[in-house]
Design goal:
The protein has eleven helices and no strands. By secondary structure, it is an all-alpha fold.
Length: 314
């Protein structure tokens, strides 16, 4: 494909990723303010597309605003998918974009079912899928970037792959511990002295150790390297601040500004850290991934034909 077409796909993916990051923040704010059930029906809101006076009630504003943003991000992701199917021939870019589009559909359904079924379990899964959706868009941005086009821009080795994979497992495990703490709400407070808090703190120590090891062993120009230390430092600081602000909070009143925003920003920075680690894994496993997605010429041609036809139809 031409460099102009690739640049256009890359920019569309960047906008989608930025929108998904804002959506992670909006979703985190819904949980922090316990506003997930402020709008009791779905897909409508109080039986309407846009209920009157929704801006005047904080929890309704938080939940309905989250839904509006989710619709916009899902629509842009659909535009990204059409763009990729029409312009992009790389099997890796196409598959990652299709995965992102599938995840946003799953995410929307989970969000709706969480409201209709009043399910905390579905709310937790909704939180995980949201982070994976954001990471999938970060992956699309990475594989359409000029750095990805440069062969062997990042050295690959078995130890590099192992370190990248271990880092992903540790960061993802931290994400799960954090989700338990947030969605259990009052049932998990106070956290002081509980196994859940100790596990989360231990996980943070392991992630920090793995990132310091990663940082010391990798080239300075490695994609994501310069961001990962500031991100993990900010994440630890936000985690401590969120713990101090929320551990003795009560859930029979509206959350204060700090009680709402500190945990939300902790979630957002965690999502950025997870996406950075996913991109790092893409580079570490680049040649293996290329082998895995490389299809026979006939299959590629068939896929391209189907994609082009679908793109034109949409």
């Amino acid at each position: 494909m031409s460099s102009d077409a690739r640049r256009f796909v890359h920019r569309v993916a960047w906008v989608a990723m930025a929108g998904a990051f804002l959506l992670v923040i909006a979703g985190g704010l819904v949980t922090s303010r316990d506003a997930g059930l402020a709008v009791p029906d779905w897909p409508l809101a109080f039986g309407q597309l846009n209920p009157p006076h929704w801006l005047q009630m904080e929890n309704v504003r938080t939940e309905h605003g989250h839904r509006i943003l989710a619709f916009l991000v899902a629509s842009w992701t659909a535009f990204l998918l059409v763009t990729v199917l029409r312009r992009e021939q790389s099997p890796l870019v196409r598959r990652l974009t299709i995965a992102a589009a599938a995840l946003v559909i799953v995410q929307a359904i989970l969000g709706g079912l969480r409201v209709l079924e009043l399910s905390v379990d579905l709310a937790m899964i909704h939180g995980v899928v949201g982070q994976l959706f954001f990471s999938s868009l970060a992956a699309v941005v990475a594989v359409t970037s000029p750095v990805w086009e440069q062969d062997a821009a990042v050295p690959e080795s078995t130890p590099e792959r192992a370190r990248a994979l271990v880092l992903f497992v540790l960061v993802f495990a931290q994400l799960l511990f954090g989700l338990f703490i947030r969605h259990l709400g009052a049932a998990a407070r106070p956290l002081e002295g509980t196994p859940l808090l100790y596990a989360h703190v231990l996980g943070a120590g392991l992630v920090l150790s793995a990132i310091l090891d990663f940082h010391s062993r990798t080239p300075a120009d490695l994609p994501g390297r310069r961001w990962i230390i500031p991100l993990v430092a900010l994440q630890i600081a936000l985690g401590i601040a969120a713990y101090v602000a929320t551990d003795d909070m009560t859930y029979d009143r509206q959350a204060t500004f700090l009680e709402a925003w500190l945990p939300t920003l902790h979630v957002a920075v965690g999502a950025a850290l997870l996406a950075t680690v996913v991109v790092r894994n893409l580079h570490a496993w680049r040649s293996r991934i290329a082998d895995a997605v490389r299809a026979p010429a006939s299959a590629v041609a068939t896929s391209a034909g189907i994609g082009a036809a679908l793109g034109k139809a949409l």
